[in-house]
Amino acid sequence: MATKELRINSAIRVKEVRLIDSEGTQGGVIPTSEALSLAKEAGLDLVEIAPQASPPVCRILDYGKFKFEQEKRIRDSKKKQKLVKNKEIRMQPKIEKHDLEFKTNHIKEFLEEGNKVKVTVRFRGREMAHTELGRVVLERVLELLDNSFVVERPPQMEGRFMSMTLNPKAKK
Known about the structure:
By secondary structure, the chain is α/β, with parallel strands linked by helices. Helices cover 40% and strands 31% of the residues.
């Protein structure tokens, strides 16, 4: 404990600190040496909580327990985060009706799971002369989905591809 205490306490290099004791009550502005002796008497550590304040705020607490609680808070906040994955579905402008419906069902599943979906139509060779067919395919996909999404990016050409991005509707 002596090495941990030195490491924490040695980082405090100011003459005076605003002290908060182990119960959370304010002790006012006192010299750093006095705050160190109070922490040593309590068998705890003096930790600088707000170094940017004037004078810096220090607290008497068990440093190991403090670090554990901080890490626990970080873990809990990560559990609550929702990871949104980007999925991509590729098609061709000459796609058959059944294939289009099949791929649209996959898009619907991805959106229900809360993922973003990029729907792409790939043009090959002479198909580049008829990019309007790709737009028709993407509009047909939108019709089949019945507003279970939000269009983040409308259909746009990107080289040999025409794509649009869909987001799931926000859940209430």
